[in-house]
Specification:
74% helix, 17 helices, 2 domains, mainly alpha, 447 residues, globular
């Protein structure tokens, strides 16, 4: 288990983090994004409810918070999903007590699932609390596989770029929205769309992490180029966050590989980002950082309540907007996310992409909120089993990439085209190659 000092520090960080999100949302985001339907209205009862849920999250996190990767999985979900979701309860107008109850069920059951799989992991994986590495020596076979995959990904991404956006080789942050609208309105073959999404959003960041660990500058540059090409295609700013956090993990792991240390430092960095964004707005009037943080953290939280409000009176999807569309047609045209985007954001081009709660509730209602948390932690435990032998930096990077993609996608889409299967297979192959190489060296030493 984490030492009591780390537990208390993490609890304090969660509390401060919630406060800085609320300040930014009510003071900055609410003013500049009021045209999207954000109305700030303080409600004392709902605000107290948010702190009661915050207390429950802290209690659960203290049980989960021991020195294994299930702990960091839960902490990332707390920072990127649970706290932003409950922070809006008492300050955003339009959130009903039904929405509060539904998101409470989501947060509680996700934390309970984390507690259950923490206990099961200790039994299934006896080394679950250790950051062990099968082979610290450089393995030429595994390096060659990673280099070949990166070259192949670069080749495929160049082809995708030439098909989708042949004349767009640069794209500023302010132009990213128009690029996304252009892509959304264009016909793109599904295979091309899936290719640039999975390669740019999941495979390239994972290969970039390997490049940092190997200190291979060509591998690093190759995968940065891949993600840049993906960004010029679809304008996804999430790539910036993914690479920033990977580099952050890289330098943190050099200081300490303890999960408890990394959890605390991650929380401090996020608090610093939100605080700096508020100071920047207060002193200069610049809100671009707050806008970026809003898109990453509180927009998915807003969408949770829009999905709840829409699907409590409309037909559930039953996977017909994702993997089930091949078997049955969606009741919403062109998709539920576009219908919700036009209804709640008051325009015809916003795609209100569903995240974890939205996906769970939109497909199966409250049954989804009960079933999906176990599925999420089961898949993450299977990923943890493969990544834990790669060292703390690679393990943290791959877990973070997988969770960020999951938070912004449907669960089954994430499994198939969101990079999850690729990461599990890659880590399994690398692990087997290292074990084989270690055994071969041992035989040579004995001889």
């Amino acid at each position: 288990m984490l030492k009591k000092t780390y537990k208390s520090r993490l609890a304090i960080i969660f509390i401060i983090y919630k406060i800085v999100i609320e300040i930014n949302y009510s003071q900055v985001i609410g003013n500049y994004f009021s045209y999207t339907g954000i109305n700030i209205k303080f409600d004392f009862v709902k605000y107290i409810c948010s702190w009661l849920m915050m207390t429950a999250i802290i209690i659960c996190s203290n049980y989960i918070a021991h020195n294994c990767y299930i702990s960091i999985i839960n902490t990332i979900l707390i920072f990127f999903s649970y706290i932003p979701t409950i922070s809006l309860w008492g300050i955003k107008e339009g959130i009903t007590f039904g929405g509060i109850f539904a998101t409470s069920v989501y947060c509680l059951l996700m934390n309970i699932a984390g507690c259950i799989f923490t206990s099961l992991t200790k039994k299934w994986l006896p080394n679950g609390n250790q950051d062990y590495i099968i082979d610290e020596h450089k393995n030429k076979e595994s390096q060659l596989i990673i280099i070949l995959i990166s070259i192949l990904c670069l080749f495929i991404m160049i082809i995708c770029h030439q098909i989708v956006a042949p004349d767009r080789w640069s794209l500023s942050l302010s132009e990213s929205l128009s690029a996304r609208l252009e892509i959304r309105e264009s016909y793109i073959p599904s295979i091309i769309k899936y290719m640039y999404m999975i390669i740019g959003g999941a495979m390239a960041p994972a290969m970039f992490s390997f490049g940092l660990k190997m200190k291979n500058k060509w591998l690093i540059l190759c995968n940065l180029l891949i993600s840049y090409l993906a960004y010029t295609i679809n304008g996804m700013k999430t790539y910036v966050l993914i690479y920033a956090v990977i580099i952050f993990f890289y330098f943190l792991s050099k200081k300490s590989s303890k999960i408890s240390f990394i959890q605390v430092r991650l929380g401090e960095a996020l608090i610093a980002a939100w605080t700096f964004s508020f100071i920047l707005w207060k002193t200069t009037g610049i809100y671009i950082l707050s806008s970026y943080l809003h898109r990453l953290f509180t927009v998915p939280a807003e969408i949770h309540y829009y999905y709840y409000d829409f699907f409590k009176t409309n037909e559930l999807l039953f996977l017909r907007d994702s993997v089930g569309r091949f078997l049955s047609e969606s009741p919403y045209y062109p998709s539920a996310s576009r219908v919700i985007g036009s209804l709640y954001y008051h325009n015809n081009y916003t795609n209100a992409t569903n995240g974890m709660f939205s996906d769970f509730y939109a497909n199966f209602g409250y049954i989804g909120l009960i079933i999906y948390p176990c599925l999420v932690f089961l898949t993450m435990v299977l990923l943890e089993k493969q990544v834990k032998t790669q060292g703390s930096f690679l393990a943290l990077s791959v877990i973070f990439i997988s969770l960020i993609v999951l938070i912004n996608n449907t669960f089954f889409t994430w499994l198939i085209t969101g990079g999850y299967v690729f990461n599990v297979v890659l880590m399994y192959v690398i692990r087997k190659i290292r074990i084989k190489g270690m055994r071969r060296r041992r035989k040579c030493t004995i001889i």
